Every structure is written in structure tokens, then in C-alpha cells.
Automatic annotation (TrEMBL):
It comes from Mastigocoleus testarum BC008. Signal peptide: none annotated. InterPro entries: LipOase (IPR000907), LipOase_C (IPR013819), LipOase_C_sf (IPR036226). Residues 57-318 form the Lipoxygenase domain. PANTHER family: LIPOXYGENASE. This is Lipoxygenase domain-containing protein. Gene3D superfamilies: 3.10.450.60, Lipoxygenase-1, Domain 5 (1.20.245.10). The keyword DNA damage does not apply.
Length: 318
């Protein structure tokens, strides 16, 4: 499948209903070689084709005969437990749910309690809705439910950075050593900016690290949302493709990930670069980066590379 041009991608984004081939092109499945061949293949699971290169081992190829036999028994047992039923048109369901997949009574009771609380919270809020004129006004969304901790500390740089590790989308964080481009050719940051930010965070005047030394030691990371650069927003909307730079700072308690700079766009020198020294602009830059992370998570990682990719493959392998 050839890569679409920039104009083609922009046109595809404007469509409400995307075909499977269009979706594969749009969400960047070029990083998954052979996926289109897999999805278009007419090969049945019982008639597997040999690998194109027998020297490259597949998962069970090097297993002993005993392990391979155990694996076959496991597959047969799983097929017996998960019987596919076609009760609805174009819908694949498990006919009878295996006992190990059934929710426990405690789980169901807890879910019912939470459901009642959520419903009460929604009804209370909708009975007296308020406009959001400030960030703190969003706390009014929780008149019954407890306000999440993140609502009180989301401005904290550490909380912002840690979400790249165990937030909803931990897929974007990349070590600078693994990039296929030079960092400073795409991100308008200098040693002076890097050291000034570190000096402020550490409360020191002298900083020995440079961008080069931090890179060589594996301490620099980025989240690059370049895929959003193909999106053309409406005239009254705004979206950008930010790049966020992080540093793994070492202390007596271990390492902590700290944000160093956020560039609101893909063009160094033209795109605005914000650092923790920029006050409210820094807060807004973090919010914009957070939204970019959500867009990529929802459209690419969750919908595209999980649901769209596995929906057909999951049916084939059962």
C-alpha cells in the first residue's frame, strides 16, 4: 500500500465514514509492515503459509516438540471454551462465557454502587449547570463524586510528565537516542535554554549537563505528535502538532521525569517554544500538549492500532 500524499490525507480526514483501506493509510500503519497483506489474505487458519524467509524464526519455530504439542492442546482447549456464536448479523460473540471470564459478585456490587453515584452526579450537575469561565470551575463537574486528585495538581510539572509513563497513552515517549532525526533540527532548543531550566528546577547556578551529554547518557526523551500536522482545523478551531522535551533527572530518591520545553508546532524558529519559566504560557502549552496526546491516543493507538487492526485478525485466529 503506497503512502498517501499530504493533500490526500487532509481530504480523508474530512470524511465521516472511512473505509478500512483509508483508515490504514490515515493512521500511519506504514510502521506495521505486512499488515495490509495480512488483512487482505484469503488464507485460512488451518492452511498457514510458510514464512517468506525460513531463516527468520516465528514464535513457535524453535520450540521443542513437547512444547509445540502442549501449545496445540492449549489452542484446542481454548477453542472449546470460547465457542463463537453468530446470533446477530455481522456480529461475532462468544456463545457461552467461560467461568473465569464472569465478573465476581463483589465486582458487580461495586459497579452497581458506582453506577448509582455517577448517575446522581450527572443529574445534580445538569440540574444546575454552570459555565466554565476558569480552570477551577471544572471542579463543579463533581457535585456528588469526589474531585479527582489530578484536578488539584494538574499544573504540577511532575504530574504532567508522569502521565507519559502511566497515563492513558504511554506509547509516545521516545528516547532521543532512538530518533531517526537530529533533535535540534526539529526542536528549537539550545544548551542555554536547557541549562537555564535545569538551574531553576534544581535551585543551582552551575549545570554540567548539555544537550549532547544528556543525549549520550540516555537522559533525554520526547513526545512528538507530528501525525497531527496533517490535520487542517476549521476556521474557529485550533490544533497543533507539539513536540515535548523531557529530562530524566537523577536525585537521591532515584530518577524523575521532568518537562524541559514544549514547541507548539513542527517548525523550529517559527513555532512557539515554551519552558517552565514562561508562567501562564507554559500552563497553556502543557494543556495543548495534553490534548494532542489525547487525540493521538484516541485515533491512532486505541481506535486504529488496537480496534481496527485486531477486529478482523481476532476473528481469524479464533
Amino acid at each position: 500500500m503506497g503512502s498517501p500524499t499530504r493533500q490526500q490525507r487532509q481530504k480523508l480526514i474530512e470524511q465521516y465514514v472511512l473505509s478500512r483501506r483509508t483508515m490504514l493509510a490515515l493512521i500511519g500503519f506504514a510502521c506495521t509492515p505486512g499488515l495490509e497483506t495480512l488483512l487482505n489474505s484469503d488464507t485460512k487458519p488451518s492452511e498457514p503459509k510458510p514464512p517468506p524467509n525460513p531463516d527468520i524464526p516465528t514464535l513457535p519455530q524453535k520450540d521443542s516438540p513437547v512444547i509445540q504439542q502442549e501449545r496445540q492442546l492449549q489452542i484446542e482447549q481454548t477453542r472449546q471454551e470460547y465457542q463463537i456464536g453468530l446470533r446477530l448479523p455481522n456480529s461475532v460473540r462468544v456463545e457461552t462465557l467461560p467461568p473465569q471470564e464472569v465478573f465476581s459478585e463483589g465486582y458487580n456490587a461495586n459497579r452497581a454502587t458506582l453506577g448509582e453515584q455517577i448517575q446522581a452526579n450527572q443529574q445534580t450537575f445538569l440540574a444546575n449547570p454552570k459555565s466554565f469561565d476558569a480552570l477551577d470551575d471544572y471542579a463543579a463537574v463533581f457535585p456528588v463524586l469526589p474531585v479527582p486528585d489530578i484536578a488539584n495538581n494538574f499544573r504540577n510539572d511532575g504530574k504532567f510528565a508522569i502521565q507519559r509513563l502511566y497515563g492513558p497513552n504511554p506509547m509516545e515517549l521516545t528516547n532521543v537516542l532512538a530518533l531517526n532525526y537530529n533533535l535540534q533540527e526539529k526542536l528549537g532548543i539550545t544548551d542555554e535554554i536547557f541549562q537555564t531550566v535545569l538551574a531553576k528546577i534544581r535551585g543551582r547556578k552551575q549545570i554540567r549537563e548539555t544537550l549532547d551529554s544528556a543525549t549520550e547518557e540516555g537522559g533525554l526523551f520526547i513526545t512528538d505528535y507530528a501525525i497531527l500536522d496533517i490535520v487542517n482545523p476549521q476556521s474557529d478551531r485550533f490544533i497543533t502538532a507539539p513536540i515535548v522535551l523531557y529530562f530524566a533527572d537523577r536525585s537521591r530518591d532515584g530518577y524523575s521525569l521532568i518537562p524541559i520545553a514544549i514547541q507548539l508546532g513542527q517548525l523550529p524558529g517559527e513555532s512557539l517554544l515554551c519552558t517552565p519559566l514562561d508562567g501562564v504560557d507554559w500552563t497553556l502549552a502543557k494543556l495543548i500538549a495534553q490534548m494532542a496526546d489525547f487525540y493521538v491516543h484516541a485515533m491512532v493507538r486505541h481506535l486504529g492500532q488496537t480496534r481496527m487492526a485486531l477486529r478482523k485478525a481476532g476473528t481469524l485466529v479464533v
